[in-house]
What we know:
Layout: E1 3-4, E2 14-25, E3 28-39, E4 43-47, H1 54-62, E5 69-74, E6 77-78, H2 83-87, E7 90-93, H3 105-115, H4 120-133, H5 149-161, E8 167-171, H6 179-192, E9 197-201, H7 205-211, E10 214-219, E11 222-228, H8 239-247
Parallel strand pairs: 1-11, 4-9, 4-10, 7-8, 8-9
Antiparallel strand pairs: 2-3, 2-5, 5-6, 10-11
Helix pairs in contact: 3-4, 4-5
Amino acid sequence: MAEVESDPTPNRPAMIEAVGLSKFYGVFTACRDVTFTVNQGEVVAFLGPNGAGKSTTMKMLTGYLAPSEGASRISGHNMQEDRLAGSERLGYLPENGPLYPEMTPASLLSFFAEARGMGPERRSERIDSVVDLCSLGSVYHKPIGKLSKGYRQRVGLAQSLLHEPDVLILDEPTAGLDPNQIRDVRDTIKQLGEEKTILLSTHILQEVEAMASRVILIDEGRVVYDGPATDLDKNGKGMEQAFYELTSTDA
């Protein structure tokens, strides 16, 4: 049974909106009628078991995948009708995001900055800023293919931040990282959350309360919980047990 709370930040503008998003592949339903809003300044964790529809929903939110039904909006821009304008306000880090292994962080960031139409002065300013924020100085001129998973994630995050977006959508930003790398990424996300609106998916439940004030939980393509992270464990059994009870058919 879904638990849906009233909007926790009703006086702030909506920055991420999912309105009845559904995706069908023949008879298979990846997600159905997914509806939620993330307002300015919120950091929201998007949770669910493998195959629940998280990545599909995120791709529809960003305009990378067309929904079968419904609509998505970023900063008020309909991503199916006005994706370019919405993309200017959005930073997207997909799971296993595309990076060119033969390039260095220096050449990759310069390429994306130029592709976004930044002039030389602006390009240099923004690259310096994201390299510092994501701690890439020590690997700046090393081939991306030679970097650890943690540093590749940092490069992907730096690329998503290059154009100073208001909204970040991060799909499994800590997947495959060791505990130290997870901590570094978590601290960076917390820092970014002071200024930006963030929706992030994760499987690491212990990290949710550390990074997010709110949880949206999806199971079998439908939202089954939307509310404060602290309320997900109302019975004091632990967030893992609450996750199990909301997503397990046995429960």
